[in-house]
Amino acid sequence: MVRKRNRHLPEFKAKVALAAVKEEETVAELAKRHSLHPTLISRWKGHLVAHADAAFREEVAKAESGPSRDELLRKIGELTMERDYLAQGMRRLG
Known about the structure:
Blueprint: H1 10-22, H2 27-34, H3 38-50, H4 53-65, H5 69-93
Helix pairs in contact: 1-3
C-alpha cells in the first residue's frame, strides 16, 4: 500500500521551525509531538535560519517603494473631485 504524501502549510512549517530554533524542546520531541521526521524539522529550521533576513528585506522594500497603485488612484480621484467642486464654485461666482 502506497502512503499519501503529507503537504504541510507554510504557517505550520514556520511554527515548528520556530519552536526548533527556540530549543525549548529537542527536535526529537517536536518530531514525536507533531508526527514528523526529525530530519524534516531540521531542514525547516535550517531554511528558517538561512532565509530570516528575507522578512526584513520585504519590510524595507515596502518602505522604500512609496505609495501603492491603489493609493495613488484614490488620491487622484479625491483631487479630481475637489478640482471639479471648486470649478463649479468659481463658475457661480463669476
